[in-house]
Design brief:
Blueprint lengths: L1 H6 L5 E4 L7 E4 L3 E7 L7 E8 L6 E8 L2 E7 L4 E7 L11
Antiparallel strand pairs: 1-4, 2-3, 3-4, 5-6, 6-7
């Protein structure tokens, strides 16, 4: 279902938040989900990346810092690049504020 919605977009990598998926890399035919969720049963948070097509051959590694931070390292011809996905908690405010 997620793949069907994202495949209509013209992007090869998309940062995801609150996926509620298990931690790790889930590989499918032409796309992969890189997720950093909690290791317990609650399935809270979960931040990561969706990658498809040619993009997948440039992924060097995926590193999970914790359930709120993950990094995706990309290898290119002349340089490497790191994408970081972070969830920063906020204080609850009233609607007026």
């Amino acid at each position: 279902m997620l793949h069907n919605a994202l495949s209509n977009l013209d992007f090869e990598v998309i940062a995801l938040r609150e996926t509620q998926l298990k931690s790790g890399i889930q590989k499918f035919d032409n796309f992969s989900l890189f997720s950093s969720g909690l290791k317990n049963i609650k399935h809270e948070f979960g931040y990561g990346f969706y990658g498809s097509g040619e993009f997948l051959k440039y992924v060097k590694y995926f590193k999970i810092i914790n359930e709120r931070i993950c990094c995706l390292r990309l290898n290119a011809k002349w340089f490497s690049c790191t994408l970081i996905n972070v969830h920063a908690p906020t204080n609850e405010e009233t609607k007026e504020i």
